[in-house]
Amino acid sequence: MCSTMKNFVIPENTSFPIENLPYGVFSSIEDTSPRIGVAVGEKILDLRFIKHLFNGPFLKENQHVFEESTLNSFMGLDRKAWAEARLTLQKLLAEDGQLQDSPYSRAFVDQAKAKMHLPFSIGDYTDFYSSIHHARNVGMMFRKGDSPLLKNWLHLPVGYHGRASSVVVSGTPIKRPWGQICPDNSKPIFSASRFVDFELEVGFVIGSPPTDLGQPVPIERADEHIFGMVLVNDWSARDIQKWEYVPLGPFGSKNMGTSISPWVVTMEALEPFKTQNAIKEEQPLKYLQHTDDYNFDIKLEVYLKPNGATESYRISETNYKYLYWTPKQQLAHHTITGCNIKPGDLMASGTISGPTANSFGSMLELSWNGEKPLILGNQETRKSIMDGDEIILTGFCDNGKYRIGFGQCSGVLLPANQPTEGDCT
């Protein structure tokens, strides 16, 4: 059963109901220029055609933000403007709304016929390490006999600065990287990575006017700077990472590509799906304490489609709520030293793993560092991602009345380039 409108149809079980309205950037065959749109049902609403309808007190003088090729200027407004935009869109898209009128038919584009682009220009990218199950799993693998968690982990959201230039939109292929590996723990060799992995993550996107250098964001106001969330696949070359990460952490093992989903789901859409924060095993310092719930019940899945296969297989099923550190705590810690932030900055959660083996968020854990190969539904096995394999991340919230979806975050692993002469030494 569907709710039919003159210009579009909203399927009953869609991931993009009127309660969602995520923002993205798209182009079409008829118009190849990237522009801002909103996903609704199976359509995209092109906001350029209706910018004049955003005539409330916070957007009337800022209608130009809907004509741009990224979300940065719109996200650079404040929460009042974001809320006004959402309320305006819901009124316009209602059954008796103005967008039912035929003159607005050209404002709608089929999602299936659109090309998606990076939704925002990413100035800086930070990756946290905020899943206690993932951190303990990795600690048990590589620090046998010692405490799985390092001493600082329960006291602060561990993170590192990633490479913004290699963040790509869903559907962009990733090439197997070359680098230094040390397979026998003696001398390093130059080789294509032999252990490429995915990492299931969710990132939040910074909005509101930028902060000044030396101006921390207090945890009580952190949510004012968080515009929305995207799915993230932090592709990783585990063998390169193992050799390089001491003492300063990941570098070349992570910068060959990070995939994000094309739709930014707003925090307003996620508000009904707030859930209890993780219980802390150690009391955080005061600047990291908040009593309000800022965790989210987002169901997450990972599928692997083997090279040449027509079917994909679910290999993990977990939930965002398993994160130990909340986005508020991540942002407060990120800025406590005075680090400034800008609209479009991306903050990823780190690998999200649950408490059971089928809820682990990386192949490293699913195959337990290759000791227990993962068996797919077609009886193929995997210790790592093979050339031609496609990794597909999905995420959604569901309260029994409607579903809030993120769309897919997918990417195919391509074979490594052949090194040029002289590169192999």
Automatic annotation (TrEMBL):
It catalyses: 4-fumarylacetoacetate + H2O = acetoacetate + fumarate + H(+). Pathway: Amino-acid degradation; L-phenylalanine degradation; acetoacetate and fumarate from L-phenylalanine: step 6/6. Residues 19-119 form the Fumarylacetoacetase N-terminal domain. The active site is at residue 134. Its EC number is 3.7.1.2. Mg(2+) binds at residues 234, 254, 258. One of its GO terms (biological process) is L-phenylalanine catabolic process. Belongs to the FAH family. PANTHER family: FUMARYLACETOACETASE. This is Fumarylacetoacetase. It comes from Laodelphax striatellus.
